[in-house]
């Protein structure tokens, strides 16, 4: 495990996913430790309806689709995906607007 972590520390960030995948196949019994200790780059997807990017994570994932906080639609489309309540969606829109103001300042 020490050697695997040493290798990951020396790996360029653009090769992190490939190297981690290879290590997981070589060391399946250490998979939970590797996944917990290795930072992976964030993945983003563009909401084509709004033209804005959003982060792909477990919090906005349903099956193999991800819900955009901008349009509340799933990418790729998912007919029966979980949607926030109207009150929560309103808060999400307000938070997005607030963060946009903060980002622009």
Protein model, in words:
By secondary structure, the protein is of the alpha+beta class. The chain contains four helices and five strands, in the order αααβββββα. It folds into two domains: about 1-35, no CATH class; about 45-105, F-actin capping protein, alpha/beta subunit, N-terminal domain (Methane Monooxygenase Hydroxylase, Chain G, domain 1, Up-down Bundle), CATH 1.20.58. A hairpin with a 4-residue loop joins strand 1 and strand 2 (about 50-55). The longest helix is centred in the last third of the chain and has 19 residues, at about 85-105.
Topology:
Layout: H1 2-10, H2 16-26, H3 31-37, E1 43-47, E2 52-56, E3 61-62, E4 65-67, E5 74-75, H4 86-104
Antiparallel strand pairs: 1-2, 3-4, 4-5
InterPro entries: CapZ_alpha/beta, CAPZB, CAPZB_N, F-actin_capping_bsu_CS
Family: Belongs to the F-actin-capping protein beta subunit family.
GO biological process, one term: cell morphogenesis
